[in-house]
Amino acid sequence: MRLRLGKDFVVYISHPDLAKVVFQYPYQEHVRVGLGILEIYHKRTGVKKGLSLLQGEEWLALRRPAQEKMLKPSVVADYVPMIGNVTNDFVKRLKQQKTVTDLLEELMKYTTESVGMLCFNKRLGCFESSSNTRLIKALEDMFTTMQQAFLLPFPTYNFFRTKLYKTFERSQQVLDEVTHKEINDQVMVLKKLKEDGKLDEYLSKDPNFMHSLLSDPRMAKEDVVGLVTSLFGGGIDSTANGLAFVLTDLALNQDKQEILNQEIQEVLSDQQTVTKEHLSKMSYLKACVKESQRYGNVTRL
What is the SS3 assignment for 6-30? Predict the structure, then answer.
């Protein structure tokens, strides 16, 4: 499908054979569509670019550590218990509310809390009514203005600090502020544990993405900040939208929903906690997610 977005065209593919051709094409280096308003923000503020804006060798140098420490299936599986606790709290929240007026907003809170655990090894309190409303609002503004900027026929924000740009800048600054604070807090925690001789015990309980990055000789602290900011911001939106599409597709295909429900019941039985062993047996669940993402774009348009 060829779709016009602002002044440019984007081609979306969903057929597996075409996807195979794209993935196997011998590209010389990584090049992706730029995010104009985010590029301008980094240029005007001097904040170092994160993974989402880098190209070629610069992108590869930052991508490799992230892939080793977060993106391999065997590594991701170690985070299942941490995310499982967040998921259980999210389900309890939905049961208490009984009626959900805005599912995407709830999913944004869930993914913010989940990705926060991955990036910072810390609960951010997004399920508490009065907690982190500033962060949630900033994320909503950031993705909305990024979408609006992407669709503009002419990027006036390149030359003027327009109302749209100012809103985006404020939201991005909130995200940068939160990321810097959480990284600095985690550095202090790890430093104190090391001084007290308790670091190994602490790291043996749960995987710690932040520690693995900070202890990597290839990563300067500013690289860690840029990488974590990209993962935190990008992971929240794409995961929330992806979940929304999967749930919608299942609701529209209730026969498939029933098959998935049966698989979950058979694998979990009467157990309430999902483990990585459980997930490895849920082949139909994986198929549902893959099929939803095959023909549904998880990026806001």
Answer: CCEEEECCCCHHHHHHHHHCCCCCC
**Which residues have a Cβ under 8 Å from the Cβ of 210 and sit 6 or more positions away?**
119, 120, 121, 183, 186, 190, 224, 228
CA angle 48, 227, 215 (to 5 degrees): 110
Question: Three-state SS for 5?
Answer: strand
Residue pair 118/111 in contact by the 8 Å Cβ criterion: no
First to last CA, the chain: 14
Residue 7 has pLDDT above 80, yes or no: no
Select from 208, 293, 263, 212 the least CA-distant residue to 12: 293
Q: Which of these, 54, 1, 75, 81, lies nearest to 230 by C-alpha position?
A: 54
Q: Which SS3 state, helix, strand or coil, does residue 127 take?
A: coil
204 and 211 Cβ atoms separated by less than 8 Å:
no
**Entry pTM:** 0.82
pLDDT (tens digit per residue) in 157-193:
999 999 999 999 999 999 889 888 988 888 888 889 8
Domains along the chain? 2-42+56-295 (1.10.630.10)
Condensed to tens digits (0 to 9), the pLDDT of residues 40-77 reads 999 999 888 877 778 888 888 888 887 887 777 777 78
pLDDT for the residue 6:
66
